[in-house]
Amino acid sequence: MTIDDPFRWLEDDGPNTSLFEEDQHRRTLEAMRSDPNWPFIFGQLDRLTRHDEWHVPQIRQGSLAFLRRPPGANQSVLQYIPAASADAVTVYDPGSLSSPHAIDWFSLSQDGRYALFGVSAQGDEWSTLYIYDSVHKRLLDDTIPGARWASVFMPPHANFFYYTRYPVDSEGGRQFYSQRVFRHELGTGLEEDTEVFSDPEVTATFTLCGSSDGNRLVVSTHLGWSRNRLAILTLDGQSIPKTVFEGLSQRMEPFWHHHELYGLYHDPLTGDAVWKWDERGNAWSTVFASPPSEPIEAATAIDSGFVLLRMKDARYQLEYLSHEGDHRKIDLPHGGIGTAQGLSSDPDENTVYFEWTSFDQPLLVYAWRIPDETLEEWGEHHEPVDGIRIWQEFVPSTDGTPVPIFLAQDARRRVSPGPAIVGGYGGFNIAYTPVYSPGIHLWLKSGGLYVVASLRGGSEFGEQWHRAGMLERKQQVFDDMVSVLRHLSSRNYSQPRVLGITGRSNGGLLTGAVVTQHPELMRSAVIGVPLLDMLRYDRFLVAALWRSEYGDPASPRDWQWFERYSPYHHVVPNTKYPAVFIFTSAHDNRVHPLHARKMAARLQKESGSGHPVFLRIEPEAGHGAGKSRVQQIEEEADIWTFQFRQLGLEPR
């Protein structure tokens, strides 16, 4: 394969690239905003996002902290409810600042007194760490830059905490690698912080998990998405870290319960299990094991046992295991068709919280108070969308493997074959399952069919399912998606002339690959914050972290994989490509905007179909997290205007 890269100049963030971006963004907005349906679509999305949105709380010693977006607000605020109180205090409101800011993450100290949280600007995710003292009801003067994706642990009744951060040089410059673990004493400067843990592998990242008594800390060293190691530190300042788990192709998520260490163990051969660490015997033992095809997505400790979030056939199940051996399940809506996440508990209480959403259900937070047999809503109630039919099918892929898909349609507006959109992701061991979206809501109520494809590369059937869609097997993810598109046509649900696809990030790679490999199967494609030049992807921003998932272009073996599917390099002159809408953001610090720029330029030059190719660049946002409500609905209004127009459906 001859490597032709005529738009490499768009990798540079220079003045010519800025002019290119400005021109592309202007033309895209002009095309979308001049559409007579845009005001209606924007108005509907605005209406559907003005509700009060609560997220799952973190609980320590009766105190709660959680993110909440009040009705009509542009950003979520961090709120805190002290123990024995029903009144929430707003700890931090990024909407009060003059420039766009967002809360990226938060954590409570073990005694519930302090809330530690990260705030970034313009969606760049380069968090600065802040500390709220609930006793004195104020923010402390301590601030720590470089706390990107930070993990923190603050022992009970302590004036210090442990945290992760990236290096920051004397001029404020940022580094994307070499994360480390530090100890910070309240009231001191950053220069006095002590480094307590690091790893020679510069792409390693860390997660901290401390015991409730504050005496021990487990550091999880992540080496890609399929393996990690665990080390215990006794927090007396004298002992050296003790490695208690070394995953060669396995990983372990630690958690503490009654001063004992447990782990959620993931193995591609034997499946997932809950393990317990025997400190005297220096060994792990199995508490509960799940079959390889029924993964445990999350586990948390409560006073009387454990709560597990499991999957079966890509549907969610919530289960309770008591110390006495009692095992019970609780029913989730639609038989588990949807998305459950954020499992949260205080290990000294018997309540677990989690988030639930589906095609027809805006985000809810549920509380399960053991031993009750029912779920209780916590926070704001949201009625489900009425009249939506939701069902599951299995599609044979190219190798015969059944791939689950979830379909949704307004039961009163059945048109076959009719306009349909398929979304997919297929990577990084992330389950891709139905969620509520105002845009999908509008699409369904207008008579469209929406499909979520749970492709290989995700976590829906465990680590084997993940590995079946990574590295040299990445093409299988694209083949799965192609099989889904053909299935929709063969079942007369839709036809290529009214069929669209959509995907973001790794899902943007998916949609880019399907567009270049099978442009005849769809009429439209939305490609969001994508990876598209896979021959050079790892040279930019944090992308070297993803070599364990995709491979290393510097390796002759891996180079051959990328040569076969890199979407940017497989754009062929005069090919009849579908209409394409590519979007990215100027401050995306995960996936560099160069991928979107280069792909848009090449498709605009080479496509022989006459269908439009649009590029939208949000000027004050990042990869997605931290976008304001208005930014989100403007972007979504542009995307859905494109889809409605290209697929011939009238929004209503």
TrEMBL record:
It catalyses: Hydrolysis of Pro-|-Xaa >> Ala-|-Xaa in oligopeptides. Keywords: Hydrolase, Protease, Serine protease. It comes from the Bacteria. Residues 440-648 form the Peptidase S9 prolyl oligopeptidase catalytic domain. It holds the Pfam family Peptidase_S9. The keyword Protease applies. Its EC number is 3.4.21.26. This is prolyl oligopeptidase.
